[in-house]
Amino acid sequence: MRNQKIIFPFEKNPEFINDLRKKVDEYFDQNKKSKFGNSTIVLQSVFMGALYILPYALMLSGVVTSVWGVVACWLVMGMGMAGLGMVLMHDANHRVFSKNMTVNKWLGKSLYLLGGFPPNWRHQHNTMHHGFTNIEGHDEDIAPVGLLRFSPHRKLHRIHRFQHIYAWFFYGLMTLSWVTVKDFVRINKYRKDGVAPFNKKYSTYLTDLIIAKLLYYTFLLVLPALVLPVAWYWVVGGFLLMHYLSGLILTTIFQTAHVVPSSEYPLPAGNGKVENNWAIHQLLTTSDFSPNGKVLSWMIGGLNFQVEHHLFPNISHVHYKNISRLVQETAQEYNLPYHFQDSFFSALKGHWKMLKDLGGQPVVVGGELKNSVSPEVL
């Protein structure tokens, strides 16, 4: 299933996305706005960058010397790390931070500072997740380690009945997985899958990946361990704490948009065709939350507007709030769903419920109770 070519029937109900794109284009033309980032995203990036870099500078310069001060710095860095990922890195790697593509290219490399590998992220997120949202065997965001079950089409194990309790612990390990083994696993997987250009420039990418990891560990672990006036294990502990907090924030934000009771998990037919065109598919598999949460939206790079982001990944997140009304109204005009939760708490509750449902039978798919696809319960 992983190598199956997925086909979205564009000829089926194309009116919705064509009409919506026209309305969105008119919004930007009438208001004389660019679809790229503006001063808001610059301010967000500076703020999140300060949260990530200043605590590090305070520790290495000797301003912060106490154990608990060092721990506090790592915690703040964890929040800054998640913020930079959601605000600057995310938009830059979607090529929408700036209208200058060179700026986007170099700011996209900020993922190196967070311990990740930009080429892997762009393929996994931009191509696979956005292209094949919630499609088993293609969207890696719903294919975590075996202890977690994010899709009704994956094998069901007895341990999954408790995943709504223990999943949150594993969420905190997400970015730690990035900086240790996951990037190496992915680069090898993409080469074996024949993904261009990984299959042609594997040695170049592998060398780049190894050097990036060595530099990251040198600056984030070795240097602090040599300089800080605390035992080395406090440095290691702080590093792990930073990643744990960042991973918990990032995973929770992303999963509350796709692994929720309203989400569907379409399976392609034998010829690879899915039932709906790509735009309608995004409506069926994605959900917004906290549409009026201005502070939350500012802090998480507008990722509470996931429906808008999935329909318009070529538009910066700073505009999602303004175009969300157009998306909702147009979806209603065409009798299509527009899923959202009023608050982040409601989204968390929905995700918790979905985890519980996916851990047993029956499961909630697209708002209806259904049995999963004949899982083998072990």
UniProtKB/TrEMBL annotation:
Q: Where is the Fatty acid desaturase domain?
A: 67-340
What Pfam families does the database record attribute to this sequence?
FA_desaturase (PF00487)
Identify a single GO molecular function assigned to this protein: oxidoreductase activity, acting on paired donors, with oxidation of a pair of donors resulting in the reduction of molecular oxygen to two molecules of water
Sorted keywords for this record are: Membrane, Transmembrane, Transmembrane helix
Q: Which InterPro entries match?
A: FA_desaturase_dom (IPR005804), Fatty_acid_desaturase (IPR012171)
Q: Which GO terms describe its biological process?
A: lipid biosynthetic process
Give Gene Ontology CC terms.
membrane
Q: List where the protein spans the membrane.
A: 41-61, 67-89, 164-181, 214-236
Q: Which domain of life is it from?
A: Bacteria
What's this protein's name?
Acyl-CoA desaturase
Q: Which organism is it from?
A: Marinilabilia rubra
